[in-house]
Design goal:
heterodimer; A: alpha/beta; Rossmann fold; 6-stranded mixed sheet; 34% helix; B: mainly alpha; MetI-like fold; 11 helices; 0% strand
Chain lengths: 262, 257
Amino acid sequence: MEAFVDINGVTLKYRGASGDVLALQDTTLKVRRGEFAAVVGPSGCGKSTLMRLVTGLHKPTAGTVTIEGREVKGPVKIAGMAFQNSNLLPWRKVIDNVLLPLEIVQPHRSQFRAKKAEFRARAEKLLETVGLKGFGDRYPWELSGGMQQRVSLCRSLIHEPALLMLDEPFAALDAFTREELWCVLRDLWQKLRFTVILVTHDLREAAFLADNIYVMSARPGHIVQVKPVDFPRPRDLQVTYDKGFADIVHELRAKIAQVRIG
Amino acid sequence: MNSSTTEKLAPWLFTIAIFVIWEAACHIFQVNASILQPPSAAFAAMARHWKTFAYHSYVTLWVTMVGFALAVGFGILLGLIVGWSRTIYRGLYPVMVGFNTIPKVAIVPLLILWFGIGEVPAIITAFLISFFPIVVNVATGLATTEPELEDVMRALGAGKLDIMLKVGIPRALPYLFGSLKVAITLAFVGTIVSETVGANAGLGYLISNEGANFRMANVYAALLLLAFEGVLMYALFAWVEQYFTRWAFRSQMSAAG
């Protein structure tokens, strides 16, 4: 089976303030099409660097990153991204924030004026799926943190990317809102079936959402374990209270504790 | 009277209070008129020679506005260039700081030598003194774009120009409008400095000329008019700032609250 995202023996060095930093060493990671992959690891292990590699914002020092059989050499243009900070543009209404990628990505870009009404309808529909029906005309600062993060998710999905890259998107939210958004993401993924790489340090989040959990070591980062999660889908939040779920979380925690030292 | 009307009236009340105290102090302490004139004398002088004052106020105003307009145009352009590339930023910054450090009054004689007595040196001085804060603010606004936002844009295939147009420039607007308030007051300083040294019209000329002839009431009248023009223009650009970048004020408010 050919992998959709294929990170093969990637090493990444960059120049830091105090000499060269070896962020990743011989990292290999294969994600198949439609997979929900979660990457967990101790802080500073190069998880975010991994995201920048896959989207083509960083070039590997050694090794290759391949998406759909083609080597990544520049920004990939098929990826949506969302971060811990929603990064919405405060001068744009919610709907115009969601539409931003369509103003940039081809072929939508050249059709943007002609198809504006259609695109707006699409954005409104997407907002509705994340529970923000009727919020399009608000400004981001009128929304709560959780709502802003929902908008950010919509923005990362509006151009129907084949790949969604999430860098701790729910880390800044309170526990209840976070679980709510897990379900939002779960439903979106179940409906649209894009490939997800979710970087997180919340082990419950990873176990609830992912098909496979990739555990990274401390810097220089590399994958030390792949943990498949085979709870049936669609998963309910209830699953997080199962014995099997707790076992997975404990196992991951033990593994990370171990790699933090070594 | 509720507290919001008090707040609205406060600027007027304070201004009037200052004039009243000033006037009273002159009479109570019987200050020598050649040292400090009461405001009533200044206003009387204004009324007596209103045509002269109107003319010189007008000259100072348009000279300042032309210099300021040049500073805005040139400042935005240079700010964009400096904010565009780190290399240009690093290269130009020390030069600009050095240039900004030179007191503009030191350049005025040169300008007068080159362009003669008149409005041109004043316009250039106003321009030179006020463009720096605009450049710095525009460049800062551009340079502080969140790196993650830039990642989002670049991962979509956005070029540098896209990022500049969609993110950088809108983001720099509050900085720009904020700097205009500072720049306009500086532009007045530039105009007056130049008019004082060498001009045949304008409030700066009037101040130095009337001062030399010991017509102190006229000097105070000119100073008051100058302050009035400054406040007026400041208020105008404060309003412009509020109007065009409401989102910046609002988002700060919500971030604070």
